[in-house]
Amino acid sequence: MDTPLVVLIVLTSVAVTSPLYEMVFGKKSLKYVQYLTTLSLLVSLILLISSTLSLTPQESTVPHLLRNDTLGSFFSLMVILVTLFVSITSFDYMKGNSNERIYYSLLLFTAIGMTMLSFAVDLLVMFVAWELMSLPTFILAGYNKQDKLSNEAAVKFFILGALSSGILLYGISIMFGITGSTNLDVISQSLTSLSPDMLPFVIFSTISILAGLGLKLSIVPFHMWIPDTYEGSPTTVSALLSAATKKAGFAAAIRIFVVIFPLFYFDLSLALSIVALVTMTLGNLAALTQKSITRMLAYSSIAQAGYLLIGIVVLPYTDLGLTGLLYHSFNHAILQASAFLAVALVRLKTSSSSLDSYNGLSKIMPITSFCLALSLLGLAGIPPLNGFWSKLILFAAAVDGGYTWLALAGLVNSAISVAYYLLVIKRMYMDETSIKAIKEPFMFISILVFASAIIIVTGLLPNVIYDIAEDITISFLANNPV
Amino acid sequence: MTDVVFLVVSLLTVFFAILALESRELVYGAVALSLSFLGAAALFILLDSIFIAIFQVLVYVGSIAILIVFVIMLVRRDKWANVTGGNERILGIIAAVLLFSTITYFSLSSSLTSQYPNPTAISNFYEIGSQLINDYWLILQLTGLALAVSIIGALTMAKFENR
To answer: Is the pTM of this model over 0.80?
Structure first.
């Protein structure tokens, strides 16, 4: 079955029509929009899970534009799962917003963009999917129109996003100029027979594409918007940005770099390893000094992008790199979504995201505190939670690929990160508060508990996701030798 | 002859582009921008890409420039007219010069010689339409969705809310 196109049709049919229901059904339409959004995401999720588990690339109706392989299914599965979490928790979080129906439509449009980006093997499809993924998030970031911080978040994000799309398109056009095609397979063939004096253009195009993608991947030096945007936008949207759009960007980066690496893998690996080092170090050090938990999580998200980048650095040297990248992407998506959504719930109930409002939280919101603590421990990489295993694989891949210093840097960084994660947990469980207990909404809590269950189960049974990631790596690299 | 035309058109395009950025009066800036777009259209004609040239004129000169003029007319504020720059200006100039010299160096040191494309490559409108529908229909669809999102988003953002 042609999974990407079926998912496209399922999601589009709801996304396009749902803003119109209000005219037909009146006030009841909100419920319909919410149910249909959830249903379409659930259907897509089931399709993607079955296509990921089938472990073989399947037919595609448009083979020159989309490749219906397990790598794409795996990344789509992640982003759709996160979108599902975000949309269900938004039932409570966005309640009372006057544009609530459109919110779900925009979420679905982002999901469509991310799904297409994960499957795309043509630079033009990638660019259009990139835009389709970005445009709704600009609006979602500024969804609280009366809130100055939300406005600032949206404006910053929009200007830098438009700039990065421009740079990305510039890189793509140069690549098209050199190779005469936008299809990655054709590009890969043309590049092998390229005359050496054209190499500077390939480097220039690679840098442009990396800079364009880098904004969403949240790597230094393209990270400036992240703390402000994550803090200002509705926190559920921050969860989407951090856990989903970033992963879709990594899917595109993997497909592009597999093609470009054979040309000059040594220099590119070295350059990327330095970027990875700076990204994780800056993210972790900046996170230490934050007073607001959303900013702290934003910097932690930057640091995690640094760990993920290790997978791309060692891509030409060892298969373990891609396996680790896939594995950590999945774990990070769940952990980061769970952490941001727990923060969203606290923000909804206490209208504050400063660290001080987390003092004694375990006494007033016990389930939320537990889920938040669990996801923070997972992000820090404490065994036996899932974050530990995937970091282990990534660092092992770095050693295996000859970048031992990068693995050591990663270990030191993980140690630093434990400090600020534990500080939040200490505030929640050791400190006192004078606020009375708060009722935690059922739907919100069930999503948090479900995410926590995934964190614990995939932590106790690390083989489940690891085996899938390994199989995907083998079948992907068999078709795209580096 | 073509070289002279190319040189004149590119110089004019760059001149108007700079004018569009630097002009103190926003209306002049908008007019300079549309002239710069026209220059780009002329460059496309020199490259035998008639189709793109037509669209450049229709979309950029025709609608976008007019839209900018309308926006300036409707939301004019005096305080926006005076934009003072600091060090960003110098940084911007340095970045632009660096980028330009890098690309020039790459181009001159590469084996690129021909400035003009193969004359048979004059765009065939029928062929473009056929490829767009048969081979690249997915891109067309996704672009349509992106436009739909833009409209939905713009309406949401612009909607007046009484609170």
So the answer is: yes
Q: Which residues of chain A does B103 touch, with a Cβ-Cβ cutoff of 8 Å?
A: 204
**Type of residue found at A122:** D
> Is residue B156 a part of any domain in this protein?
yes
Residues A173-180: what's their mean pLDDT? 88
What distance lies between CA B63 and its chain's CA centroid? Answer: 12
Number of structural domains in chain B: 1
Token duo for residue A204: 């220039």
In this predicted model, what pLDDT tens digit does every residue of B47-93 receive, in sequence order? 878 888 998 999 988 888 888 888 888 876 666 555 666 677 888 88
CATH assignment of the domain containing B51? 1.20.120.1200
Predicted complex ipTM: 0.89
Alpha-carbon dihedral angle through residues A119, A320, A52, A335, given to the nearest 10 degrees: -90
A170-206 residues labelled b (16+ CB within 10 A) or e (exposed): bbbebbeebbebbbbbebbeebeeeeeebbbbbbbbb
Arithmetic mean of pLDDT over chain B: 83
Q: Which residues in chain B are closer than 8 Å to A128, comparing Cβ atoms? A: 139, 142-143, 146
Block residue for tokens 């030096």: A221
Phi, psi of A66 (to 5 degrees): -125, 135
Q: Which residues of B touch A (CB under 8 A)?
A: 102-103, 105-106, 109-111, 135-139, 142-143, 145-146, 148-150, 152-153, 156-157, 159, 161, 163
pLDDT digit string, tens, across residues A120-148: 999 999 999 999 999 999 999 988 888 88
Three-class secondary structure of residue A434 per DSSP: coil
Measure the CA–CA gap between A441 and A439, rounded to whole angstroms: 6
Asked whether residue B43 is domain-assigned, the answer is: yes
Q: What whole-number distance in Å separates Cα of residue B30 and Cα of residue A208?
A: 28
User: Tens of pLDDT along A306-353?
Assistant: 999 999 988 888 889 999 999 999 999 999 999 999 999 999 988 888
Q: What domain range is B46 assigned to?
A: 2-111+124-161
- Tell me how far CA of residue A327 lies from CA of A279, A330, A479, in angstroms: 20, 5, 20
- The reply to whether B81 falls in a domain is yes
Could you please report the per-residue DSSP string of A382-399?
A: -TTSHHHHHHHHHHHHHH
